[in-house]
């Protein structure tokens, strides 16, 4: 199938989005594509990149390029990480298992979501040799939270990514119009229905009473009371690096340092949470300055092409998370689609780096971009 898509010139983000739309249900496609509210922030994420322009230098021997980065002592061949995306079963029957296999083949770390269709153990099984991190939706039932973290450690996950921008779910117009919630349909139950603590909270097994099990899941999935002091609970339960995903304010970056967090991810959840919120790229420079190189700064929300990656790294990111592009690849062509999206993006970053006059990701500095308009 991948060859067919190549022949059809399915190359860039828009091509993959169109292929995905042809292959999955309109409800699932809307769920993936949509942002919150009026989608002001969803649009702002991409538009923010247009305001920065690369100022290339020439005659600098770019015949050999190095795209590798090092994070938490581990070297990776590209500056990509696959963002946590829940409920991948709505995009493809193999869901996160296909993504995990692609991630392993491409040597790109994969962040498995708390609300995955498959369990974290099943996902780990498909990517035994690859770096994988676990994204935590801190459950209202804290024993489930600690159980998830313990399971992730046991299954060889290398970091815990706590998503802090989801005290509750953003208001997504398209899904409301469709009356569609994949969580309520059980597409995100992989980790919960395999969790001993979660199961102990039910009077009947999910097989015996699916409605009650899903009701409990929806009830405990988020923890709106979470505050900075609570991070010590997580620290007590794991020695893995802890990253906070959703940092947009330099003051929160400073608080993250104060609370001994190991990394931050500048992100607005792809415009799916607070509409009217600043573009993630517009937050990056200040957050990176506040962090001052003490811990890694990762970035997502709006990465579509190679030059976007160069711009994010120039503004202070150490790596970028790929979100919607790979889910469209998954929807269009399963594992092969994810691999092809990463290959295309890698080729685009490689070309953009060389054409900027740089031979290594390590040489990207603020100096190579200028703000216009
Ligand atoms: C369909 C979908 C599901 C997502 N699920 C999660 C999730 O379970 N946990 C999480 O932290 N972020 C989730 N995200 C946000 C992504 O991790 C990432 O922040 C976002 O996709 C980046 O924006 P972009 O895709 O526009 O580049 C999801 C995003 C999408 C599109």
From TrEMBL:
Source organism superkingdom: Bacteria
Would you indicate the residue range of the signal peptide? none
Alphabetized UniProt keyword annotations? Oxidoreductase
> InterPro entries given for it?
Aldolase_TIM, Alpha-hydoxy_acid_DH_FMN, FMN-dep_DH, FMN_HAD, FMN_hydac_DH_AS
Q: Which Gene3D superfamilies match?
A: Aldolase class I
The cofactors required by this protein are: FMN
This protein is called: L-lactate oxidase
Provenance organism: Sutcliffiella tianshenii
């Amino acid at each position: 199938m991948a060859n067919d898509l190549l022949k059809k010139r399915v190359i860039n983000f828009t091509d993959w989005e169109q292929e995905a739309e042809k292959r999955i249900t309109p409800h699932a496609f809307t769920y993936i594509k949509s942002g919150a509210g009026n989608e002001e922030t969803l649009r702002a994420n991409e538009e923010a990149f247009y305001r920065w322009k690369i100022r290339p230098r020439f005659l600098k021997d770019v015949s050999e390029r190095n795209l590798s980065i090092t994070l938490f002592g581990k070297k990776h061949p590209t500056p990509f990480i696959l963002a946590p995306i829940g409920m991948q079963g709505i995009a493809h029957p193999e869901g996160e298992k296909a993504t995990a296999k692609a991630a392993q083949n491409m040597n790109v770390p994969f962040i498995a979501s708390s609300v995955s269709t498959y369990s974290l153990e099943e996902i780990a099984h498909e990517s035994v040799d690859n770096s994988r991190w676990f994204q935590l939706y801190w459950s209202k039932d804290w024993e489930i939270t600690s159980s998830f973290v313990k399971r992730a450690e046991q299954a060889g996950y290398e970091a815990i990514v706590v998503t802090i921008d989801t005290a509750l779910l953003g208001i997504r117009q398209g899904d409301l119009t469709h009356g569609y919630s994949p969580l309520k349909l059980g597409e995100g139950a992989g980790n919960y229905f395999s969790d001993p603590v979660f199961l102990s909270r039910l009077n009947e097994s999910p097989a015996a009473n699916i409605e009650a099990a899903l009701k409990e899941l929806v009830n405990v999935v988020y923890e709106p009371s979470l505050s900075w002091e609570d991070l010590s609970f997580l620290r007590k339960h794991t020695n893995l690096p802890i990253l906070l995903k959703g940092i947009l304010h330099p003051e929160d970056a400073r608080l993250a340092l104060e609370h001994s967090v190991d990394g931050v991810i500048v992100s607005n959840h792809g415009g799916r949470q607070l509409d009217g919120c600043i573009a993630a790229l517009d937050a990056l420079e200040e957050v990176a300055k506040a962090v001052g190189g003490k811990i890694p700064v990762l970035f997502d929300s709006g990465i579509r092409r190679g030059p976007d990656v160069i711009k994010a790294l120039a503004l202070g990111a150490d790596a970028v998370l790929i979100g919607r592009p790979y889910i469209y690849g998954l929807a269009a062509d399963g594992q092969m689609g994810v691999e092809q999206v990463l290959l295309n993006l890698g080729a685009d970053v490689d070309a953009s780096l060389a054409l900027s006059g740089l031979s290594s990701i390590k040489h990207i500095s603020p100096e190579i971009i200028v703000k216009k308009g």
